[in-house]
Design a protein that fits this description.
Blueprint lengths: L5 E5 L3 E6 L16 H8 L5 E2 L8 E7 L5 H9 L4 E9 L8 E3 L2 E3 L7 E3 L7 E9 L5 E8 L6 H8 L21 E9 L6 E5 L7 H5 L6
Parallel strand pairs: 4-11
Antiparallel strand pairs: 1-2, 2-4, 3-4, 5-10, 5-11, 6-9, 7-8, 9-10, 11-12
Length: about 220
Amino acid sequence: MTTVPEILYEDSEVAVVFKPTGMLTEGSSSHGEASLEAWAMGHWDERARCCHRLDRATSGAILIRKTRRWNAELAEIFAKRRIRKTYWALVEGVWPNTVTSIKTPIAASSSPKGRQEISEAGRPAHTTVRVLGSWPEGEISWLQLILKTGRTHQARVHCASVGCPILGDVDYGAKPHPAFFGLHAQELRFTHPATGKSLQVAAPPPESWQTTLAAMDSPK
C-alpha cells in the first residue's frame, strides 16, 4: 500500500498529488502526524499549500499551489465550481439503477459531533452517480461520483442516504472494514490559471482496491 504522497502532475505553479488514505490534508493530529500540506512544504518550500481538502480516510488527487502568484484565481476556481471533482466509491449493497442524481441538502449533525446529515435546513448539495460495476454476489457496487457542490462529507452522506454506505465508513452506517475505506478522489479537471489550458489529472486507486475491482462485473 502506498503510504507516502506521489506527484501526479507538476509545473512551475501547481501540482496534483496523490494523498494516501489515513493522511491528514493539513494541520496536525495530537500524535504529531505529518499532513500532506506539511509534506508539500518540505518537498517544495513554505509557500506550498493545499487548495482543498480530503477526509483523512479518503485517498486521491489534491491540487497544490506551489507559489502565491495565482492565489485569487485558484480560490475562484473552487468558489465558482469551475473544477470538476470525480470520485470512485465502493459501497455496500446493490446501487439502485434509478438513482443517477442526488439533490438533498446537507447540514452539520448536532449528535454525534463532526458528522453531517440530510436536512432541509442544510445547504444545497448535488451528486451525480454512474454505476461502473458490481460484485456478482451483489455485496458491493462500484460507483463514479461527480460532486457538483462541495459540502463536508457530501459523497459519504449521499451514498448512505440511499442505503448504500461507503465500505468501511462506520460513521455513516457501514460495517467495519479494517484498513480499507471505499472513497477515492479519482480525477481533477480544471483550467490552469497561468496557461488557460484545460488540465485533467487522474489518480489510480489504492493498491488495496485492486482485488475488489478485478472481481467486478460491468453494469448490464
